[in-house]
Amino acid sequence: MHIHFAISAAALLHAVSAEPIPQVSIRALPNAPSGGYAPAAVPCPASKPTVRAAAGLSQNETAWLQLRRKATVDPMIDFMKRATIPNFDAEAYIRSVANNFSALPNIAIAASGGGYRALMNGGGFVAAADSRTPGSTGKGGIGGLLQSSTYLAGLSGGGWMVGSVMLNNFSSIVQLRDGFEGSSVYQFSSSIFKGPKQRGLSILNTASYWDDIIDQVNEKRKAGYNASLTDFWGRALSYQLINAPNGGPSYTFSSIALTDEFAQGNTPFPILVADGRLREDKVVTLNATVYEFNPFEMGSFDPTVRGFVPTEYIGSNFSNGAISRDGQCVRGFDSASFAMGTSSSLFNIFILQNVSAIDAVPGFIADTIVSFLTDLDDDHNDVAQWTPNPFYQWNPSTNPTASTTELSLVDGGLDLQNIPLTPLLSPHRAVDVIFAVDSSADTPQNWPNATALRATYERSLLPIANGTLFPPVPDANTFINLGLNSRPTFFGCSPSNFTLLPGQILPPLIVYVPNAPYTAMSNVSTFTSTYSDDQRNDIIRNGYDVATQGNGTFDAEWPACVACAILSRSMYRAGRPAPAACEACFSRYCWNGTIDSEDKGPYLPTFKIRNGTTVASSAGRRVVASGWSFASVVGAVAVATLVG
Ligand SMILES: *[C@@H]1O[C@H](CO)[C@@H](O)[C@H](O)[C@H]1NC(C)=O
Ligand SMILES: *[C@@H]1O[C@H](CO)[C@@H](O)[C@H](O)[C@H]1NC(C)=O
Ligand SMILES: *[C@@H]1O[C@H](CO)[C@@H](O)[C@H](O)[C@H]1NC(C)=O
Ligand SMILES: *[C@@H]1O[C@H](CO)[C@@H](O)[C@H](O)[C@H]1NC(C)=O
Ligand SMILES: *[C@@H]1O[C@H](CO)[C@@H](O)[C@H](O)[C@H]1NC(C)=O
Ligand SMILES: *[C@@H]1O[C@H](CO)[C@@H](O)[C@H](O)[C@H]1NC(C)=O
Ligand SMILES: *[C@@H]1O[C@H](CO)[C@@H](O)[C@H](O)[C@H]1NC(C)=O
Ligand SMILES: *[C@@H]1O[C@H](CO)[C@@H](O)[C@H](O)[C@H]1NC(C)=O
Ligand SMILES: *[C@@H]1O[C@H](CO)[C@@H](O)[C@H](O)[C@H]1NC(C)=O
Ligand SMILES: *[C@@H]1O[C@H](CO)[C@@H](O)[C@H](O)[C@H]1NC(C)=O
Ligand SMILES: *[C@@H]1O[C@H](CO)[C@@H](O)[C@H](O)[C@H]1NC(C)=O
Ligand SMILES: CC(=O)N[C@H]1CO[C@H](CO)[C@@H](O)[C@@H]1O
Q: Given ligand 8 and candidates 419, 438, 449, 475, which is best to mutate, with the most ligand atoms within 8 Å of its CB?
């Protein structure tokens, strides 16, 4: 241990002074006041930060939306022009509502959890939706959807994708995939447990990688804060997600708000999701409070906590929403890596396991990590400690953790809501359509069966949803038998199917986009941590093909149907009937209430497209045959590496 700290001091000096800065440094801001990972006390602004009641959106989000909604108009018009809904002038429609933000379509994208599979499959969707991706605005493409979107939410592995895009100056997935000079972003061929092959321009070995991480977390401890495994996990993740030396220890999540691209409304509004966990609870249920992190605020609209704290000032001692008169303000606690690590804390359990299993990692590293954890026991090593609890003494009659100075947060998918829908369903955000990209591993072969959607529907019936509606979705076998999990499916198409009580609003239309094998067997295990560049590129491309149905291979009208989904709620509000071509889309893509719950055996889908040749696309019931040999060509993508 003593030897270790001697090494660390030198390494720390090196990190501060001698690190080569990559030439291309596009990213959020390294604005933690300590200059490193540690939070630090700073003078409070003239009006001290407070927790606010979640009775609406923050002033900052409201003001930002004025810019963003306006900025989505031209991309939406371009999208409509390319999508060409037959016999309907969608461009004229968008122009007619362009100045009325309650009428203009309000679009969100939500990327599920599922480790690297979710990062890559969700990244493939975002690449397809991004007009900057070469080819995305060609035939069958949906490029421009990202530029038309107001919100971009991510959870766990989906949060890594959203975080990496937003923290690197709204880089495109293609840019992140192809990398930056001297940077380790998206380099998954070297596992997170071993560390990147190079740091800046120099070769980095595993021992010094972990040494750096331990030093970073130790700075936070020395500043008086507890460390949890999530601190280590988040720091390690950042070497792969943030294009800055040492994974940018001082990058904060709130700094996204200070970047020009976001501040001018040129990007969607990023949201990460995590669940609250009570000390005494072993399992996280649908009654858990769903917390969100956005660049302005962290908190929850749920009727339990029902409050938001400025993200920038998390770490300050709030009590009943206020900092005491002589209390100081703290900044830098909202490390971008800690936020991304919290949303994905499911993976914490693999740190110690893998760190001690990998030969290259010196034994003392695992011991050192354990020695830093004040609170490690079998039930709580998946917890991220957001201590001091910003919601201490806040709403004590309903807030389950109002009486504790510790706020324990866990992976946002642990309540089974693996798609980050909750923040997007808030009536205050009035979202019209959510593209729900599902990379969950529900079936034994790691394909989704919409457990995440069912969880959100079931939660909508509980008191914690406070009447927020969600479209009904059928059981897992129906998804499989009707093929609803192997192609995009719309839920909540008919407004007349909802009975609205006073105060309730129509839920958004849900465009469910499940991971399915178009051109790669993208059902890799959630816990596989290493991917060759080819495997990575294949899974991103498959996600792209999922999003575009193979550039329209399965339905040349798919872009028009996406346009119809975008317009649906807006036209309903305006009392305008949907164009005939949209009715045709809805009859193809909307779940119409049919149920087929019979268990017909395992779901083993084969390639929908192989080598550019379309294969019949009914729900994959066929036994896996030649598909697997193609899998070996594209890389051992289909081989699930089960850990544990
Ligand atoms: C961020 O991206 C924008 C748009 O590509 C570019 O104009 C700007 O220079 C970039 N900012 C930084 C700091 O690299
Ligand atoms: C804006 O759109 C909403 C919803 O369609 C409508 O109720 C409202 O009257 C419109 N406002 C104006 C000023 O046109
Ligand atoms: C669809 O287009 C993209 C972008 O040009 C390309 O990368 C992808 O391979 C295409 N997919 C198919 C199935 O042709
Ligand atoms: C660290 O965690 C312990 C156990 O939860 C708690 O009692 C203590 O107050 C925490 N310390 C700080 C500085 O947050
Ligand atoms: C969730 O809370 C409701 C009451 O609000 C209760 O009826 C239900 O049993 C709880 N469910 C779980 C799984 O704790
Ligand atoms: C519940 O929803 C109603 C609107 O239907 C709203 O007025 C009320 O403030 C909400 N309550 C809580 C605790 O969020
Ligand atoms: C917050 O409260 C803790 C416990 O009372 C104290 O140790 C710490 O110094 C306080 N932090 C600030 C910034 O006031
Ligand atoms: C659906 O997924 C859940 C896990 O999310 C699993 O327990 C269940 O067995 C799956 N059912 C089918 C029919 O695939
Ligand atoms: C509803 O969908 C099922 C298959 O998903 C189809 O067989 C049936 O014809 C549809 N019913 C109507 C009324 O469109
Ligand atoms: C919506 O209502 C219609 C008419 O009652 C019914 O046929 C249909 O099944 C419902 N759709 C869903 C998805 O429940
Ligand atoms: C794909 O097509 C190429 C060229 O026709 C052929 O050489 C290759 O074997 C095919 N691969 C598979 C997996 O069918
Ligand atoms: C968290 C955050 O960014 N808060 C800002 C909201 O806007 C006010 C000005 O209206 C700023 O002072 C806050 O810093």
A: 449
